[in-house]
Amino acid sequence: MARKKTAAADLPEVSVSEYGNVRNLHLGTPWIQGSMRLDDPFAIELEYVQRMMAWLLFVEPASVAKRHAMQLGLGAGAITKFCRKKLRMCCTVVELNPRVEAVCRAWFKLPPDGPLQRVVLADAAEEIQKPEWLGTVDALAVDLYDHEAAAPVLDSAEFYASCRALLTEEGCMTVNLFGRSASYERSLASMAQAFGEEALWAFKPTREGNTVVLAQRQATRPKPAELRARAEAVQARWELPATKWLRVFKPVAR
């Protein structure tokens, strides 16, 4: 998993745009790398990012605040802000680009670090190898794209095996992929090698083409009635469109 070191000069510039009530993050291109509603900065604006919270369907709602969320790739901080402010979870972020952290603090309402939140400026591939993180993460969100947003930066079976090692027994990983890209099947195969195909669930692509895949540390198949009850609870508690997810969220292995 060794990779060429990234110098600060090689990291993209970070910029901000606004359209109506929404503020967007850009990494040197017009591609939107994250968004925030100005009138509700701790809600999740983008549909695919909302879907990265699908791990909530696999845990008891009352236990959520006791869990640990880790985000690889800060973006506009939507997942970390939601987990910290709405779910009251302990949160860790691993981000390579210090400019992204600075812009999130200044423009996207990322709370200051404290006992329940920490931003680690590091290469995710290296940071997740540290023993301190192993077996500690209940909800791992992986959204690692470069400024061209063409394919995931880290996408090997070895990388996903390291992600699996971070998870608790009930832990889940959610990954943002481009479902209409040629790289999608390759990414899915890498995840299946690390987690087992029975542990994988996937959404249909959004209109923009983002496909969120969920991988469980331990594969389970909740009954439809149980998933429906969990989805209703998630929607009622945290205003995520969880009941709609069930129409487009299925196990990869049938």
UniProtKB/TrEMBL annotation:
UniProt keyword annotation of Methyltransferase present: no
* Swiss-Prot/TrEMBL GO biological process terms: polyamine biosynthetic process
Q: Which UniProt keywords apply?
A: Polyamine biosynthesis
Source organism, top-level taxon: Bacteria
Indicate the segments annotated as coiled coil, or none if absent: none
Membrane-traversing stretches: none
Can you name this protein? Spermidine synthase
Q: Which organism's genome codes for this protein?
A: Paenacidovorax caeni
InterPro entries in the record: SAM-dependent_MTases_sf
